[in-house]
Design a protein that fits this description.
The chain is α/β, with parallel strands linked by helices and 301 residues long. The chain is 38% helix and 17% strand. The structure holds iron/sulfur cluster. Iron/sulfur cluster binds next to helix 1, helix 5 and helix 8.
Length: 301
């Protein structure tokens, strides 16, 4: 059967991920003998974490503990804050412990944090649309009792008095976010709404929606299960009514029998997915190969 394959653009690391990886590598080069610990996953991809370990960069991660709690495990040396940012309390605690700080927070995340802090200083309530437990969201909702986390419309408080500022995690679904914003606006017409979805997230999601008239019957989203922007790409694919949507971390997770029933397959990837992994998947689905090539970890970074 003739099968069409479309690589949805853009792909590869976003600017924030590129910056974080470059900072971590530079930190190791400049400090060859110092213990360096990354506080959580530098970016949400298991292969990137493994590749960083080859540079003797240790990652400490435990989804049941906050960044503030994880910091207790670092005794000395350099701490790298991840692309998702940290709360001011984490910054203060790292300084008090005498750790040297390298901050790899993405500039778009820093911008959201600054806007939120500005409105908190003006005594506004902040409704923050994001995901509980995600480090980017945690850095904001753990910073003040005046931040209310909104994961769905059910979390919108029924009665809040005073100024309300509404913003969001940078990697939310553009469709879901508009719906939540509208519900907030209906309930609190005076609320000031500020959409902070980053450009890398927006263009990747829009590119999926733009497939609408191309008879795509299969969408492969390459990325880590822990990556929010990857999960949202799949959600957008389902919203766009693509019949078969699958998220895979690498080529071993491809269901070749299923994929080979599709006539037009689109392949996209999250902003923290190494292009090397996406290339392997493209080669696999374009060929008649029975199994994927092995991953060479030295090709990841
Ligand atoms: S997805 Fe957006 S916010 Fe996250 S690191 Fe990339 S550019 Fe920054």
């Amino acid at each position: 059967m003739e099968r069409k394959i479309t690589r949805v653009q853009p792909q590869g690391y976003c600017g924030g991920v590129l910056q974080a990886i470059a900072l971590a590598k530079k930190c190791r080069q400049e400090n060859p003998d110092t213990p360096i610990t990354i506080l959580g996953n530098l970016v949400h991809n298991t292969y990137v974490k493994k590749a960083l370990a080859h540079y003797h960069l240790t990652t400490i991660e435990d989804s049941s503990r906050s960044r503030l709690q994880l910091l207790d495990d670092i005794k000395d040396g350099i701490v790298i804050f991840t692309a998702h940012g940290v709360s001011p309390q984490v910054y203060d605690k790292a300084r008090e412990k005498g750790l040297q700080i390298v901050d790899a927070t993405c500039p778009f995340v820093s911008q959201t944090q600054k806007i939120v802090q500005d409105h908190l200083t003006q005594n506004a309530w902040v409704f923050y649309v994001g995901k509980k437990g995600h480090p980017e969201a945690e850095a904001i909702y753990s910073s003040s009792d005046h931040v209310i986390l909104i994961e769905s419309t059910q979390d919108i408080p029924s009665h809040i008095e005073g100024e309300i500022f509404v913003t969001n995690q940078t990697t939310m679904s553009i469709l879901e976010l508009q719906s939540i914003f509208q519900t907030i606006k209906d309930q609190y017409p005076h609320a000031l709404i500020h959409d902070e979805i980053c450009n890398a997230t927006r263009v990747r999601q829009q590119a999926i929606l733009d497939l609408k008239d191309q008879n795509v019957d299969g969408l492969i989203v390459v990325g880590d299960p822990s990556s929010n922007n990857t999960q949202k790409l799949a959600a957008i694919g389902k919203e766009a009514k693509i019949p078969y949507v699958v998220c895979v971390a690498d080529a071993t997770e491809i269901d070749l029998d299923q994929i080979r029933t599709c006539h037009h397959i689109a392949i996209t990837s999250g902003a923290s997915t190494p292009t090397y992994l996406t290339d392997q998947i493209c080669r696999l689905v374009s060929s008649d190969a029975a199994k994927p090539e092995p991953v060479d970890i030295d090709c990841i970074l």
